[in-house]
Amino acid sequence: MTELLAAHGIAVTSFEFAYMASRREAGSKRPPPKAEALVQEYRDVVRSLTERSKGNSKIVIGGKSLGGRVASLIADELYREDKISGLVCLGYPFHPPKTPEKLRTAHLETLKCPTLIVQGERDPFGNRDEVEALSLSKAIEMVWLGDGDHDFGPRGRSGFTRKGNLAAAADTVAAFVASLSEPR
User: How many domains is the chain partitioned into structurally?
Assistant: First the structure.
């Protein structure tokens, strides 16, 4: 995705949460901490970005799955402070797989920050039918990738490809970012 966004002229800064680095280095498969426990780490990365940009560039935060969820928890605060222009979530985890009653969406009902969520139609963390039944903020634009799962991969005979879904996601993100206002 970083390469596809770079082809659209979008600079991407990626980072690895400390828990992920620890899991990778130790070979552990422990589950991630709760999203709320990662908020300060994400906030620190954004602070570093805003200090480097000195307000001269449009900053859009986001991430894939848990990263997008953590970003969504601080998006309104950073948007009100004029530190970011928007939020992009790729494969948002609306609920744990097979437990659609355990929603992670209360804050998404009142979100004010311009938001794009790109989701696979068959995502086990929130498929199209489940998500379209939710009451989400009007600031959220949902884009669905054909027959995509959580990583945007479709089934073999669907007529869609993962490569095509990723390209469509990148095109959508680029158009969304271009539509956002510069910081005040």
Answer: 1
